[in-house]
Design goal:
Elements (H helix, E strand, L loop, with lengths): L2 E3 L4 E3 L1 E2 L6 E8 L22 E3 L28 E7 L6 E7 L17 H5 L3 E5 L4 H5 L14 H4 L14 H16 L5 E11 L1 H11 L9 E5 L6 E2 H15 L5 H6 L2 H17 L16 E2 L8 H6 L7 E7 L4 H5 L9 H11 L3 H10 L5 H27 L4 E6 L3 E3 L2 E3 L6 H6 L8 H4 L5 H20 L17 E4 L16 H7 L7
Helix pairs in contact: 6-8, 12-17
C-alpha cells in the first residue's frame, strides 16, 4: 500500500496507470483553505488529521471562470484550494532531486490538474515532481486597500489582526505567499516521498515563470530552492498605485466599495466576474492604452515587503545570485494568444502604428521586424513584435542579467514548427511544455502541438525531459551557461526536431539586435 507520513498525518497515493513504477499523491493540502476568516490573508498550515487521508484525486482549483480541456472547473463553494500533487518513483533510492511546478494562466486561470502537467515521465527520469495550486485573480493578487481610520461601518472586525496575531493581515502578492508556503511544505515533508529538501528546483511557465523569478529574488524564499526553470516569463509587474487603481475598477464592477469590508463582502465568484468585465472593457476600448491589446489586470506587486523591484531589475543588481537559472522561450509566442482570441486583432497599418505608440516602441523596431519578415502581413508583424515585448525579450534578458551579475544561467529557445495537414504548426506559447513534461500523448495538448506526435516529436520530448532532469539533478542541462549577452549558438540551445535542423533558421533569436537598440519597456499587468 502506497502510504506516506507527513507532518500533518498519513496520506495514501496510488500507482499511475501509465507507469506502475511511479506513485502519485494528489490533492494533498499544504495550507488551510484561504477563505472565511483567512480570506485575503497569508496562508496558514493545514490542520492535521487522524488516520490515513485518501489523496488519489486532484483537489479543487482556485476561483476562476476558465474551462480548460481535460481539467476541472471551479465551482462556488470550492474552498480547500491550497493543495499539491506529487509523483515519485515507488522504489526510488531516496534523496532524489525535486522539481516544483507553478502553472501559468495570466495569474487568473489554470491549475495543477491540467493533463500537460502530469509528472509521470519526469518522475521516470529520477525526479520527485510536485505541482501546486495557489490563489489566482483578486484572491491571489488583488490589492486590498489600507482603510485604517475609516469611519465606514463594519470595518472594525476586518481591521483586527487574525487569531495568529498577523501584523499585516491583508498582504499583497498572496498567490506568491501561497507558493512560498508550498515550498516550505516541500522542505519539511518531501523526504517522506523520497525527495531531498536540499535539491529543489522551482519551475514555471508564463505567469508561473514570472512567479518563480519573483521568488528567486525574494528574501523570504531564500534557501527554499537552489535552481529555477523559467519558460516564457511574462513582462508584467505592478506598483502598489497601479494595483490600487485596478482594485477600484474591479470593486466598481462588483458593485461594492473599494475597501476591506466591501471586498470581503463580495463572494469570490463576484470578483471573478468583475475582473472579467474590467478586462472586456479594456479590450473594447482602443483608447485605453496598453491594456487594450492584452487586458491582463493582475500580477506581482512591488509592495516593498515581499518584492521591492521587478525580477529583471533585481537580478541585474545581483539578487538571487545563488540560484541557477534555466530560461527558455518560444520563437512565435504570441501567435497562440491570437489563435485563442485573447488578444485584440491588429489588421491595419494605422492600428499597428497605434500599438507601437501605446507601448513606446520606436519606428526603427517596427521597420526592422517588417524588413526581416518581407512577406508577412500586418497581423504577423504585430504578433512578432508582441512576442518579443511580452515574453521572448524579457525572458532572454532575465538570463542575461543573471549571468552579467555573476549568476549561472542557461538559455534555450523552442523553435519546433512545421506544416501539417494544410496548416502551419507554430512554435507558440505553451507548446514547449508538453514536450518538457513528456506528455505529448495527451489528446488535450494536441491543439498546442499541432496534432498527434510523430517519432521526431517524441525524440525531441525525450531530449527536453532529459535536460530538465539533468539540470535539476546536477545543474547541467547539456550545454554551456551564458557568460554575457546571448548570442552564439554554443550558449543558446535551440529546441527543434531532428528533421527541422539545417540552414535557413536563425539560431540567435531573429530580432535580438533590434531589441537591444530599442530597449524593452517594462509593462504593468
Amino acid at each position: 500500500m502506497d502510504v506516506f507520513t507527513t507532518k500533518a498525518g498519513m496520506v495514501r497515493g496510488r500507482r499511475t496507470a501509465r507507469d506502475r513504477s511511479i506513485v502519485t499523491v494528489r490533492g494533498l493540502p499544504y495550507a488551510a483553505p484561504p477563505f472565511g476568516a483567512r480570506r485575503f490573508r497569508e496562508p496558514r498550515p493545514a490542520e492535521p488529521w487522524d488516520g490515513v487521508r485518501d489523496c488519489t484525486a486532484f483537489g479543487p482549483i482556485a476561483p476562476q471562470s476558465a474551462e480548460l480541456p481535460g481539467a476541472p472547473v471551479w465551482s462556488p463553494g470550492d474552498e480547500d484550494i491550497l493543495t499539491l500533487n506529487i509523483w515519485t518513483p515507488a522504489d526510488g533510492p531516496g534523496d532524489l532531486p525535486v522539481l516544483v511546478w507553478i502553472h501559468g494562466g495570466a495569474y487568473v486561470f489554470g491549475s495543477s490538474a491540467q493533463p500537460d502537467f502530469d509528472g509521470t515521465a519526469l518522475a521516470g527520469r529520477g525526479l520527485v515532481v510536485v505541482t501546486l495550486n495557489s490563489r489566482l485573480g483578486f484572491e491571489g493578487f488583488g490589492h486590498v486597500p489600507d482603510t485604517e481610520g475609516s469611519t465606514e461601518p463594519a470595518l472594525d472586525a476586518a481591521l483586527l489582526p487574525d487569531a495568529d496575531g498577523d501584523a499585516a493581515p491583508f498582504p499583497d502578492n498572496r498567490g506568491l505567499l501561497d507558493q512560498i508556503a508550498a515550498l516550505e511544505w516541500v522542505r519539511d515533508n518531501i523526504s517522506a516521498f523520497g525527495g531531498s529538501p536540499d535539491r529543489v528546483t522551482l519551475a514555471g511557465q508564463s505567469s508561473g515563470a514570472t512567479s518563480a523569478a519573483c521568488l528567486t529574488v525574494a528574501d523570504r524564499a531564500r534557501g527554499l530552492f537552489r535552481r529555477a526553470v523559467l519558460h516564457s516569463a511574462v513582462n508584467a509587474f505592478a506598483t502598489v498605485e497601479q494595483a490600487a487603481r485596478i482594485t477600484a475598477e474591479v470593486a466598481a464592477a462588483a458593485g461594492v466599495p473599494a475597501t476591506r469590508a466591501g471586498l470581503l463582502a463580495a463572494p469570490p465568484e463576484a470578483l471573478v466576474a468583475a475582473g472579467d468585465q474590467v478586462c472586456e472593457r479594456y479590450a473594447q476600448d482602443p483608447g485605453s492604452g496598453q491594456r487594450h491589446y492584452d487586458p491582463a489586470i493582475y500580477g506581482p506587486v512591488a509592495d516593498g515587503v515581499l518584492l521591492t523591484a521587478d525580477p529583471l531589475e533585481a537580478l541585474a543588481a545581483g539578487a538571487g545570485g545563488a540560484v541557477e537559472l534555466l530560461v527558455c522561450h518560444a520563437t512565435e509566442e504570441y501567435w497562440l494568444l491570437d489563435a485563442v482570441g485573447s488578444s485584440v486583432k491588429i489588421t491595419t497599418e494605422e492600428q499597428l502604428a497605434a500599438f507601437a505608440a501605446d507601448f513606446g516602441l520606436p519606428a526603427s523596431l517596427v521597420e526592422g521586424h517588417r524588413e526581416r519578415l518581407p512577406d508577412a502581413s500586418v497581423p504577423d508583424v504585430h504578433l512578432s513584435l508582441h512576442s518579443g515585448l511580452l515574453f521572448a525579450e524579457y525572458s532572454t534578458r532575465l538570463a542575461e542579467a543573471h549571468a552579467l551579475a555573476g549568476g549561472r544561467a542557461f538559455l534555450a529557445r523552442f523553435d519546433r514548427r512545421r506544416d501539417r495537414a494544410g496548416h502551419r504548426v507554430r512554435a507558440w506559447h505553451c507548446a514547449d511544455i508538453p514536450f518538457a513534461f513528456g506528455n505529448l500523448h495527451e489528446e488535450s495538448v494536441h491543439f498546442l502541438v499541432g496534432g498527434p506526435p510523430g517519432p521526431a516529436d517524441q525524440e525531441l520530448s525525450g531530449r527536453m525531459t532529459r535536460a530538465w532532469a539533468e539540470f535539476a539533478a546536477h545543474g547541467d542541462p547539456g550545454w554551456g551557461p551564458l557568460d554575457g549577452p546571448a548570442g552564439s549558438a554554443a550558449t543558446v540551445r535551440v529546441w527543434r526536431t531532428a528533421d527541422e535542423d539545417g540552414p535557413g533558421r536563425d539560431a540567435e533569436g531573429g530580432f535580438r539586435d533590434l531589441w537591444r537598440t530599442a530597449g524593452l519597456p517594462l509593462l504593468a499587468p
